[in-house]
Amino acid sequence: MKKPMFIFAVETSCDDTSVCIMEDNKKILSHITHSQKEHVKFGGIVPELASRSHLSILQKISKKALFEAKLKFGDIDYFCATCGPGLIGSLLVGSIFCKSLSIKGNKPFYPINHLEGHVLSTSFNNNITYPHLVILLTGGHTQIYLMQKLGMYEMLGETLDDAMGEAFDKVGKLIGLRFPGGPKIEKEALLGRDDRFKIPHPLLKEKTLNFSFSGIKNYVNQLVKMNYPVDDIFVKDLSACFQKKMFDIIEHKILYCLEILQQRKIKILQISIVGGVAANQFIKKNLAKSLDKKNIDLLTPLKNMTGDNAAMIAWACSKKIFNSKPNIFFNANPRLELK
Ligand code: KG4
Ligand code: ZN
């Protein structure tokens, strides 16, 4: 019988410290993610704090992961870590930690692009058909990728300013919700009216696949000033209107993208939404309904693979083992792109 292969993955691109041990046949033996809470009181991520925190947490959760997986360090066959994009200090801590383990164990190290981890996350729990469209919605990125096959990425559009997750966070902060704003806005929106405020739709009339969110942030800023101090109903209604607008923007962009792809004679049968914002039930439910009318399936990652997590890094590594070489000399790159 073939001996199973074990992958040890580390993700520390921002403020989540995560390790995963995966068996090559997609079995997650252990997956531990620690979300750093020390940033909450600052209303955003403090890079220096994040690096220090990764340093102290990584060792503890790595030991715990081996224990949970019932493995010894020497059983690990492949090591991999996120090497970009992200905060440089955080990336250095995770990647150097994992590279050191690979040297000690004399096993290969694979550098993984964080964006590729997100983009491939839906292929863990779904059978992907190509050409495939991926909408990446995180706190740092908002991009549309066309994948003609595994590992081939064509970026069709991206944000010109803030990312969608960042817009959730900034609007959340303006209306007094704790960081990160995304999940809090979703919760407040449940009891709000989504037709009270006329939130602008940036680039609505432009023939572009790019996004922009800074105008919305300015609009909300003005609105808050005019209604200061805002009450509970205001927070709920604004959350509902903002969340609805985020859905409208994604839907509008996807429909335009499908039009463009049709002109290129590319037929899409599946669309993935990935990244932290893909956890949003309102967006998922309404997008699935809208795409269903076009006979397109909406794919989303498993819940523990939406935010930053090492399982998606292990999974991306499991795809690389067969078609690329390990590279321990790959330097962490805060601006790494996906090409
Ligand atoms: O993918 P992710 O965990 O980290 C990055 O790579 O940036 O995404 C984090 C972002 C944050 O901006 C957070 O507010 C947003 O995802 N987010 C959500 C929800 N859960 C997380 N946005 C909207 N609705 C949610 N339920
Ligand atoms: Zn991410």
Terminal-residue CA separation: 37 Å
Name the hetero compounds present.
5'-O-[(R)-(carboxyoxy)(hydroxy)phosphoryl]adenosine, zinc ion
Name the overall outline: globular
Helicity level? 40-55%
Major sheet summary line: 5 strands, mixed
The number of helical segments is 9
Number of strands: 10
Sequence of strands across the biggest β-sheet: 3-2-1-4-5
Low-pLDDT residue intervals, each spanning 5 or more residues: none
**Strand percentage, roughly?**
15-25%
SSE run: EEEHEHEHEEEHHHHEHEH
Q: What structural class do you assign from the helix and strand content?
A: alpha/beta
| Overall average residue pLDDT | 97
What is the rounded Rg? 20 Å
What can you see in these coordinates?
The chain has 339 residues and is an alpha/beta fold. 40% of the residues lie in helices and 19% in strands. The chain has 9 helices and 10 strands. It has helices at 47-69, 88-105, 114-120, 164-174, 181-189, 214-226, 232-263, 281-292, 310-320; strands at 6-11, 16-23, 27-35, 78-84, 109-113, 132-137, 142-149, 152-158, 270-274, 297-299. It has a 5-stranded mixed beta sheet, with helices on both faces. It has a 5-stranded mixed beta sheet with strand order 8-7-6-9-10, with helices on both faces. Strand 4 (78-84), helix 2 (88-105) and strand 5 form a beta-alpha-beta unit. The longest helix is centred in the last third of the chain and has 32 residues, at 232-263. The protein is globular, with a radius of gyration of 20 Å. The two termini are 37 Å apart. The model has no long low-confidence stretch (mean pLDDT 97). Zinc ion (ZN) is lined by residues 114, 118, 138, 275, 308.
